[in-house]
Amino acid sequence: MLQYDFDNSPGYWMVITTRAIRRGMEAELANEGITLRQWEVLAWLTIENGMAQSELAERLGIEAPTLAGILDRMERDGWVERQACLHDRRKKRLRATAKAHAVWQRMAECAHRMRAKCTDGISPAELLQLKSICERIRANVDEVLPRVVDSSTTDSGDCVPVAGADLEAPPPVSPLTSVQL
């Protein structure tokens, strides 16, 4: 029989907690007619509206073809638009549409409700301690990760970003998961 001491695994604790948070966010966002993955796309566009599609796939931790399907649906539903770069028509830049801007605040309120639920009964000091512990775990893991840069997924700077206002109030970015609460 396969055995492992999951009860003593910080990685397991974090994964099951992240899954619970994702399920809660999915339920919150369903009322706005958007999926969690689509919200993650818009959340990243609050940080950099006009982000390259390849860079977004990397930040979301998904394959480019998977992201392409998500973006196809979002473009069809009027949430984002893709524009070819001026210097390389093969590259696509993403921009949130007026429809996304119009309902972004309600989507952000979903995240705030989820954050409040997640932190219910947890003191500010405990939250700071949790943040500190997570930062130390990431630093420990980063020490053992290989330092490889894949130039095929990075933007070489030859692509001019599209113009457009960013969405309001960028969410904090989490290296552990792209769900920002």
Structure commentary:
The chain is mainly alpha-helical and 181 residues long. It has a single domain, classed as Orthogonal Bundle (Arc Repressor Mutant, subunit A). It has 6 helices and 2 strands; from the N terminus they run H-H-H-H-E-E-H-H. It has helices at 10-30, 36-47, 53-60, 64-76, 98-119, 124-144, and strands spanning 80-84, 92-96. A two-stranded antiparallel ribbon has the order 1-2.
Number of domains: 1
Supply the CATH architecture. Orthogonal Bundle
Quaternary structure state of the chains depicted:
single chain
User: Strand tally, please?
Assistant: 2
Q: Which of globular, elongated, flat, extended, rod-shaped describes the shape?
A: globular
> If you compute it from the alpha carbons, what radius of gyration comes out, rounded to the nearest whole angstrom?
18 Å
Considering DSSP H and I runs of 4 or more, what fraction of the residues is helical? Answer: 40-55%
The biggest beta sheet, please? 2 strands, antiparallel
Structural class: mainly alpha
Report the uncertain regions: 150-157, 160-166, 168-179
Per DSSP, what share of the residues sits in E-state strands of 2 or more residues? 5-15%
Spell out the CATH superfamily: Winged helix-like DNA-binding domain superfamily/Winged helix DNA-binding domain
**How far from one another are the termini?**
39 Å
Which H/E pattern describes the elements? HHHHEEHH
Query: Biggest sheet: strands side by side, in what order?
Result: 1-2
Number of helices: 6
Report the average pLDDT across residues.
84
Write down the CATH topology.
Arc Repressor Mutant, subunit A
Q: What is the CATH class?
A: Mainly Alpha
